[in-house]
Amino acid sequence: MNNCMGKNEKKSALVIINPYAGRMRSRTGVFDIINHLSQNEYDITVHATTKKDDAIDFVASLDREYSVVLCCGGDGTLNEVITGMMAHEKRFPIAYIPTGTANDLAASLGLPRNIIKATSIAIDGTPCDHDIGQFNGTSYFSYIASFGAFTKVSYATNQQAKNAVGYLAYLLEGIKNINEIKPHSVSIKSSEFEYDGEILFGGVMNTLQAGGVLKMNRKDVDFSDGKFEVLIVKMPKSMTELSEILRDLAKGKYDQSGISLTHTEHIVFESEEPLSWTLDGEFGGNHKRVEIKNLHRAVKIMRP
After folding, report:
1. Rounded-to-integer distance, Cα 94 and Cα 5, Å
2. Are 112 and 166 contained in the same domain?
3. Would you place residue 281 in the very low, low, confident or very high pLDDT band (cuts 50, 70, 90)?
4. Is residue 6 part of a domain?
5. pTM, rounded to two decimals
6. CATH number, domain with residue 289
7. How far is residue 91 from each of residues 8, 62, 87, measured CA to CA in Å?
8. What separation in angstroms does the CA of 184 have from each of 65, 138, 169, 235?
């Protein structure tokens, strides 16, 4: 069960805006956010990001408390805000105003894309506990860490293409890379299971969807239960089998051969060749060994 606490009466808001996320909706939306917060008598601070990791550094260096931190951008911007927040012993509730391309976590949490409605949740919603993933002890993710087929697409597609055509940009990039699909020989160990063999895709998740395509069943996902969902797709023997696997993934059918779904709080991946990982859709580095831990109820995210 999610653990939600009551609203904080102190009214101060920090607004972190990525002006380049999605179709740059946040550039005009910032005025709606400020106006809505002002009408509700909030003391407002605004910071617009200018480069990668800007939000991490800014949030990590905060020297005052806020009732809520509003993150206006995509999943990558939210990742930066959360990463910066992890540097604080006392962590302020985070409100997500989704203006990115995919917005997978926002969709999973039932957060609206409408900026004014999303800001209303920052004001009147409830801060609820949310598990965060710790990646190799230094990095974090809010909803997915993955490697293998198609994971390169999200960070290989340039921002202008994402802004212009959205999901189509991901699809086109995926088609360009379909010939690059290859198995990865990986050893996986957790307290719940072990596996050693060829894998097409591996994902450690806390979400109902990823990439706007991968669907999880609601009964399998609890955002604050202390465990992640681990999805493993074994290497198919033919293109026909691959098509069947992709169809099953899109329908949320994980009881098929070639697909494994389990739950764990701690997992280790090892491979002879470095694997390219993504964290919340952004490049997470190339690694031969990855250790992922569930940080139980590490942050609070405002929800309806």
Report:
1. 13
2. no
3. confident
4. no
5. 0.86
6. 2.60.200.40
7. 13, 11, 9
8. 45, 24, 25, 8
Closest CA to 290 of 76, 281, 274: 274
At a CB cut-off of 8 Å and minimum separation 6, what does 297 contact?
A: 3, 129, 130, 131, 224, 226
Residue of 50, 43, 51 lying closest to 8 (CA atoms):
43
Chain centroid to Cα 193, Å, comes to 24
Give 266 or 243, the one with higher predicted confidence.
266
Residue ranges in the chain assigned as alpha helix (H): 25-39, 54-60, 75-85, 104-109, 115-124, 153-156, 159-165, 167-176, 239-251
Which carries the bigger pLDDT value, residue 265 or residue 248?
A: 265
d(CA 155, CA 282): 5
The residue out of 72, 104, 131 marking a domain boundary is: 131
State the Cα–Cα distance between residues 82 and 142, nearest whole angstrom.
Answer: 8
> In this structure, how many other beta carbons lie within 10 angstroms of the beta carbon of residue 188?
22
DSSP state at residue 90: S
Full domain range(s) for residue 101: 12-131
Helix (H) or strand (E) holding 112: none
